[in-house]
Design goal:
By secondary structure, the chain is mainly alpha-helical. It contains nine helices and two strands; from the N terminus they run ααααββααααα. A hairpin with a 2-residue loop joins strand 1 and strand 2. It is globular. The N and C termini lie far apart (43 Å). 11% of the residues are buried.
Length: 193
């Protein structure tokens, strides 16, 4: 039964609308909704698989635009809430137990991590604050604070290193070895909000 998979796909496609970033799922530039609804000239997602889950694009279109999904159903476990159907619980616990037993020295494994595209990080922060970073005055306190928030997001959401961040125009006037302190200060300020 693919009902939970269909529910999860709808939930993800509706995330930008739920977050108030756009009013329609196809307006969000990093969404595959355009592809699933036939509004993209060069699809990269496996639209055939998704269409088969719904029995066609028309049914999918009605559900995407239809009722908003507030949250996904979860299963309570000793290890926290788990998304998915009951049969998934055993698989999730097995993976958890394997990771605990391995005691890997790696901070994170590549296949376990996902980072946002850099352009998406910029776009969301610009939209949230109603600014364009290429027109921002970094001599003002507000400009410095927004640049600090951008630094935190680039490090945590996009997974960039300080070396990569130092090459971006917003940080080119800052020495690379100063970025760690700037990051820590900005992170503290954001946590205090």
């Amino acid at each position: 039964d693919d009902s939970y998979l269909r529910l999860a796909i709808l939930y993800l496609l509706q995330n930008p609308v739920r977050a108030g970033l756009v009013s329609n799922v196809v307006e969000y530039p990093w969404s595959s909704a355009k592809e699933y609804l036939g509004k993209s000239k060069c699809p990269i997602a496996d639209i055939r698989f998704v269409h088969e889950l719904w029995g066609g694009m028309k049914v999918l279109s009605k559900e995407i635009i239809g009722e908003r999904i507030a949250e996904l159903p979860t299963i309570k476990s000793d290890h926290g809430d788990i998304l998915g159907e009951l049969e998934f619980l055993g698989q999730a616990l097995e993976k958890h137990d394997r990771r605990v037993a391995e005691k890997s020295i790696e901070k994170r494994r590549k296949e376990d991590s996902y980072f946002e595209p850099v352009g998406k990080v910029y776009w969301e922060l610009e939209k949230k604050n109603g600014v364009k970073f290429n027109k921002l005055d970094y001599g003002t306190l507000a400009g410095k604070r927004l640049r600090g928030e951008l630094l935190v997001r680039l490090k945590e959401l996009a997974g960039l290193t300080y070396r990569e961040i130092a090459q971006l125009p917003e940080f080119s006037a800052i020495k690379q070895n100063s970025l760690a302190k700037l990051y820590m200060d900005a992170r503290k300020r954001l946590a205090a909000k």
